[in-house]
Structure formats: structure tokens, C-alpha cells
Amino acid sequence: MILVLLTAILLGIFTYSVWVWSYFIRKGIKGPRGFPGIGMLIQTIDHENPPFLKYREWTKQYGPVWGFTEGPQQTMVISEPEMVNEIFNKQFDNFYGRKLRPIIGDPEKDKRVNLFAAQGKRWKRLRAMSSPSFSNNSLRKVKTTVQECGTEILWNIEKKVASGEDIDMLLFYQEYTLGVISRIALGQSESKMFQNPLLPKVKAVSYFLFSFISSHEGNFQIFNGSFHLFLLTGVFPPLAALIRKMSKSLPADFVPAFKIFDLIETAVEARIAQREADAKNGIEPGEPQDFIDLFLDARSDVDFLGEKNDDFSKSVAMKVNRELTFDEIVGQCFVFLAAGFDTTALSLSYATYLLATHPEIQKKLQEEVDRECPDPEISFDQLSKLRYMECVMKEALRLYPLGVTANTRKCMRETTIDGVTFEEGMNIQVDTWTLHHNPRVWGEDVEDFKPERWENSASEHLEHNGSYIPFGSGPRQCIGMRLAQMEQKILLAQILKEYSFRTTRNTQIPLKLVGKLTLSPESVIVKLEPRKDLL
């Protein structure tokens, strides 16, 4: 009887796995198949062969709409601008969720859900609460902190230049962006640049629980436990909830994100204790100094897990409760730390590589910086005058769209677009690389680094019609986009006022790209040459 029962259970599991795996075959939708029970999961967590570059090859093979499975999850991949615009903007009410890995947790039940993962009414509340952090007024307040971090990077650059060493700018930019986000998000009072114990931990989160975790020197060390854990929860999602409950007892190398949560929780608790002590001593609270202060001002003991999304609509006015629980505060600080560290450092790295390999464009940019920012102190208003720099940054992100993971949605209500039916629960992934390298949209010079293409007013509509989405699109567009742009402008202007980027024999040309959550260069090694026109 036991043998019969086990046989029946195994047969049932196998039958269910084949049924899920064969979904796109039954629907007549092309795509890579993989194996029953696993699908293409292994191929989409391969650090050395980034899945987002594989999407480009599969799109060439299967067309602009195709599908694949990852364990029990089904994902449709699209690369048509019109369909992207329809899903991200026009039909947002049908696609207000985001594709999530099981280890992230259930966005409806997780007490620490963050703005990236939340959906429906909870997302709307978290978005409303977080938006003031990125207003013009808030950015003006943190501009000085950002510039101080840039100045410290320049000091370290000077040491390298004096010794004649090449510099891996990716590592320097990571130090810079972690320094900025630690001070404006986590209230770190002093700089810990190049000796910040958070760096290897945050790097681990940025590579998102995968088998490779970057050391402080930029080398990669394998942690098979993390890889197997991720693969296991991808195939058997119910195990993710159990692993999350065991997070405090698991080694940090297995699930580094959970350990970052612990550090942030300690920081928030310390700030609460400080506030309580100040209140007892009659000290009035001042203006919020960082994200923790901002969120604590809206702290509530109410549990919002009961919010229902059956009638969610972005266009319908609804009263938003401007309160956050303690766990939600921890969740928001976590996502701003992780996202603010990695993506901005990578954007700066790609821009640096492209400027180093295109000296004529770099010279034109330096002329603009000299003209618009003549003083050592760069003012907030001067940043908006760096128009050509904006073109350089946009073009760098067109050629190297790094945050592809964010360009996903989940179908919340069945709908049909251009003859393609998206069933409820279906994941949608944009093949951003193909989208940004489409010659029908960008012309035959699509592979060229050409910032001037953004000086044409006709290109502006491409940011609104689904053709260009480096920061996402629609209501869920990256909330930190303007902060990231300010960080990039300030540091690039500071560096280019004094130095020129030059390639060396150690520069990877072309760049070797790696990563799963974001698309990262393996290194960006250049030489910084003091500007001869200033000597």
C-alpha cells in the first residue's frame, strides 16, 4: 500500500509538472522549453551568461512574443513598443503587479513588503508615502551630501592617479553610491567610504541570492548553497515561506538579503530609541534628516495586510492612508538601499566606458561642464543646464539597459492585446535589450553611441510610447530615477572638470557583461588623465 501510495504521489507530481511545463505548447506559443518541473529556471539564474542577453537571442528565434516556464511560473516575453505601452500604461489596472521570485515572499501577506514588490492598494499607499523623499525640495536638501561623497571619491582618485595606477571605476562608483544611500537613507552620520562593512553584504543582495557574490576586491566567489536554495524555491515555491521563517538561523551566505533586513531593523530601532530619549528631555523633533526619519513620522501600529485589491484601479480616486508599520519602514529602507546602491553605480560605469572609448564625445561633454559649472561648488540649478550630459546618460542606458528585472508585470485580470491573450497570474517580461536595440525605432546606427540622437525633439516621444524604458514606464516607473540622475550628474561633472577617462591595455573592450538581477560589466578599468588644458 505504501509503495502504491508513493507511486501515485510521484505520478501526480510528474503529471502536474508536465501539465505546467507544456502550457505554452498547448497554447501554440513558441519559446524555449527546458525540462518538466524546471523549465528554463537554470538558464535564467546563470550569472556568467546573463538571461537578459539570452532573451535577445530567443526573440530573434521565436519572434516579438514568446513564452517559457520557470518551475510552476509562466512568463510571456514581449519586445513590441506598442504592447509594452499598453501593458505598462494604458492597461495598468490589469497589470499592476510585478513578476516576483518565490523567495521574495507574498506581496499580499509579507509584513515587510517593499515598494518594488507591493501591488494594488498597498503599493499605492507605499508609493504615496515614499514620493516626498524624491521631490525637488528633498533633492535640494541632500545635494550637499551627494557632492561631499563625490569629493571624497575625487580624493581617492587623486591617490591612484599620483601612483600611476589604472582604476576599476565600477568599484569606486559602488563606494560612492553606497556612501550616498547610507547617509540619506540610513542616517549614517559620517563617511565610511572604502571601509564600509556594509559593502560586501549589499553586493550580495544586489546579485540577489545567486551563486556568485562579489568580494570587496571585485573577485567572484562561489556559494553553491545560495544557488541551490534559489533553485529549490523556484521549483517548489511553498518552501520559500519556510525558509523565510528560518532566516535568522540560516548562514548569511545563503540568504544575504535577510541579514541586511536585520541590520536595518537595528538602525530603525536605534532611531526610535533616540527619538524617545529626545522627547523625555524636551527636545523638539526637527525636519526629517533621512528616509528613516521621514517614515517614522508616519509610523503606525495598524496592520494593513487586510487591504483587498479586487476593485483596485489607478485612475479611480481613493483615500490613501499615509501611515507605515514598523516592518514596512524596514522594507522601504531595504529596497532603497539595495536599488540605490547597484543601479546608479552601474549607470556611471557604462557612461564612463563609453566616454573613454569615444574621446570626441567626452571632450564635448567636458566643454559643457566647464561652461555651465565654472565654480568648484556645483549648484542644484546648474545640474538642469547639463543637457548634453543628460543625452550621454540616456544613450548609455539605451545601449546598456541594466535594470531589466524591474521591467516585468503580472497579469491581474485576463485581457487580450493585439490578439494575444494574457491569463490572470501570467508573468510578463520585457526583452529590454531588443527593445532598445531595435533598428526600426532607432535607425541603422542603433549600435552606435550617439548622444546627439536625444537632442532631436522627435526622440522625446520614445520615452512615452514603450520604446525606451531604462527606469520602467507608467505608474510603476522607478521612484528614485531623479535622485539617481542627480548623483550621476554631480559625480561625472566633478570628475570631468579635472580628468579625462582613457582606455588602457587592461580595459575590457567590449565589456564582458554578467549578472541576473541587473546587467553588470565585469570591470570598467580605465586610466584617469589630468586634463592638459587645465595645466
TrEMBL record:
| One GO location term (cellular component) | endoplasmic reticulum membrane
Q: Which species is listed as the source?
A: Caenorhabditis remanei
Protein name listed in UniProt: Thromboxane-A synthase
Per its record, the protein catalyses: prostaglandin H2 = (12S)-hydroxy-(5Z,8E,10E)-heptadecatrienoate + malonaldehyde; a hydroperoxyeicosatetraenoate = an oxoeicosatetraenoate + H2O; (15S)-hydroperoxy-(5Z,8Z,11Z,13E)-eicosatetraenoate + AH2 = (15S)-hydroxy-(5Z,8Z,11Z,13E)-eicosatetraenoate + A + H2O; prostaglandin H2 = thromboxane A2
EC number(s) reported in the record? 4.2.1.152, 5.3.99.5
What is the protein's membrane topology class?
A: Multi-pass membrane protein
InterPro entries xrefs: Cyt_P450, Cyt_P450_CS, Cyt_P450_E_grp-I, Cyt_P450_sf, Cytochrome_P450_3A
Which GO terms of type biological process are on file? prostaglandin biosynthetic process
The record's subcellular locations are:
Endoplasmic reticulum membrane
Residues at which heme binds: 478
What is annotated about its quaternary structure and interactions?
Answer: Monomer.
This protein's record includes keyword Lipid biosynthesis: yes
